[in-house]
Specification:
By secondary structure, this protein is an alpha+beta fold. The chain has helices at 2-21, 80-84, 89-112, 128-143, 170-194; strands at 24-31, 38-43, 51-60, 63-73, 76-77, 147-156. Keywords: Membrane, Signal, Transmembrane, Transmembrane helix.
Length: 195
């Protein structure tokens, strides 16, 4: 009996760890119906070096178009011109990583049209750009009369996926089914031994 409890406890612990690593979150979506057809823009407060993030997009007929987002040094968006001006290889790589990440978010928005559905870039150096991306989006949507709606379903956010519309709940479902199967096997084995 004690052994079965230990095994069950161990299985539950493993399930908790696996679920926590999948980044379970409640899915949200954006309702743009309350937003007027207009151009919306916002930016974060510049840091001590004058670095900030800016977002700009147009809402037409409840859809987003002309979306731009990026990291800026003053009035200049991080671009390949920055790379040419730097001699240090590590700085060049960091700038290129920034360019790649901001391009990823812009490309995803062109196909998805909703920042809440865009997963964090898999090669992101840190969380700062993704946090700014989500924060600016939510700020502009709510200020413009739109809504961020929690749809109440649990999903697993996958940072390696370039297509956040498919398979986001797959990992969580797999973990739940696998955990239930392991617990069931343990219970059946226990009954088999004691019978």
């Amino acid at each position: 009996m004690k052994k079965a409890k230990k095994i069950t406890g161990f299985i539950i612990l493993i399930m908790i760890l696996v679920v926590s690593m999948t980044g379970v979150a409640f899915a949200a979506s954006t309702d743009l119906t309350g937003m007027k057809n207009d151009v919306y823009s916002a930016q974060t407060t510049p840091d001590a070096q004058g670095i900030n993030y800016k977002m700009n997009f147009t809402v037409e007929g409840g859809k987003v178009s002309n979306f731009t987002f990026g990291k800026f040094a003053g009035a200049n968006k991080f671009s390949s011109g920055f790379i040419a001006a730097v001699s240090d290889q590590k700085q060049k790589e960091a700038i290129q990583a920034t360019i790649d990440e901001q391009d990823y978010y812009t490309t995803q928005m062109a196909s998805v049209g909703d920042a809440t559905k865009v997963a964090k870039y898999s090669k992101a150096i840190d969380d700062s750009m993704y946090t700014a991306f989500q924060t600016l989006w939510k700020q502009l949507v709510t200020q413009g009369g739109g809504k961020i709606v929690d749809d109440g379903t649990a999903t697993a956010s996958t940072t390696s996926s370039s297509n956040p519309k498919t398979g986001d709940g797959g990992i969580l479902s797999y973990v739940i089914v696998a955990g239930a199967a392991l617990i069931g096997m343990t219970v059946l084995r226990k009954k088999k031994i004691t019978v």
